[in-house]
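Appendix B, example 12.
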Amino acid sequence: MKADTFQYPYESRRMVYHAANGMVATSQPLAAQAGLAILQKGGNAVDAAIATAACLTVVEPTSNGIGSDAFAIVWIKDKLHGLNASGPSPAGISIEALHQRGITEIPKYGWVPVTVPGAPSAWAALAKRFGRLSLTETLEPAINYARNGFPVSPVCGFAWQLGFDKYREETDGKSFSHWFDTFAPNGRPPRAGEKWCSPDHADTLDLIARTDAAAFYRGELAEKIDAFSRQYDGFLRADDLAAFQPVWVDPISVNYRDYTVWEIPPNGQGLVALMALNTLKGFSFTEKDSIETLHKQIEAVKLAFAKGMHDITDPAHMRTTVADHLSEKVAQQHRALIREEALAPESSQPNLSGTVYLCTADAEGNMVSYIQSNYMGFGSGLVVPGTGIALQNRGHNFSIDPDHANCLAPAKRTYHTIIPGFLTRGKEAVGPFGVMGGFMQPQGHVQVLMNMIDFGLNPQAALDAPRWQWIQDKTVEVEHALPQHLAQALQARGHDIHVALDNLGFGRGQIICRDPQTGVLTGASEPRTDGMVAAY
């Protein structure tokens, strides 16, 4: 977006960043600086994204790791490309197999919810198709931090303590001991400002770099994952890893006002954000802080979730199409359902999550929107011995109901919460955006985009603004900074309003916008995290 498109309140003008040569925005300063160093070394936006993503597995392990999944939207040479690097369930798992073990619901932790990690494949696929530098170059900063250590940042340190307390209370058994050995080697998690290192993590990243991730899926690391799974009667096998390939996909979109909003197609939940925006574009909004705006936003999001959580899954198993969900007919039906009183649509209760989001841009106009996550913080609670690989628990999102579209099945991708976003206007790229945080993500996309497009806020002000989050039924959680009279007005309309004591559950976003005439980049980083915009 052009700079003069936005209002620049004094308090946000101090924080928004401008640069012309390159920019990286993410939730941890050391990772952002690692990406910037790669740009200055001659890498492009894709190389910077890989370096930043790998570094985040080290410096923010509370949200992601080598055992994560990943998605990306890449704008390069004036064309948009999507990458789905989310792994499927093991070929040997099924609802019947769980029932035979006496398991009637998918647990949060342990081997049952572990799916094939996709993040290392994403780094290799991005580097091979669009990168200029090798993985040995782009992963070097991450390897150095893992081997030599780094001081833990404040929000990460707080989340680390929460993760430690959670695993100590909710996990039991020797299979979880490797997590404590890795992430709490002194019997407690590192505190903010204390140095932490993981030599095993460094060795694993080095092996991934030297083999272009082949060792993770068909070599030494795959063998270690397989052995660990067999030792504790897990379902994941070396054959599952060897069979996996990330998939290049065409992003999906809706037109919103004068812009086109792009998301990754299912199995991601970007479709929920697009459905909500498709509904909301039929209304006129003149004021951000008004009961009419907030009420309609919340209702549109609830209706989109009710439909999305019923239908979204591995695209090979979907019973509906993206076009069905984004039709004007569905949008009109949803608008007609939005009345003065709050709705209680049928839907599952969303879960909290742990995710990292980053975006990058270079002087040539290339840009990347990238997201990576273990899920629920550190993930399954399992760390492969001697590797530093914390395995994700993405399979927890599967339904155990065989009639549900997202039911558990062998070699199937589940409904996925992590979603990178991208904005264009006409044939020009505006830029990448994202708001991490489980089922908050599509809600964050809607709020941040409307802040910029409908209400003219600059990217930093759009991220700074107080947020709300639909939880379930008529329950809506709001940040304490939301004006009290608006919270009371929502309550009067039938919303069950809960004021949060902290802002941990409201997502953490990053934005980069590019002026198509001058090439000047405008970046913003989330105030709810340790984030930073690194630029030159």
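The first strand starts at residue 17 and ends at 19. Confidence is low (pLDDT under 50) at residues 6-14.
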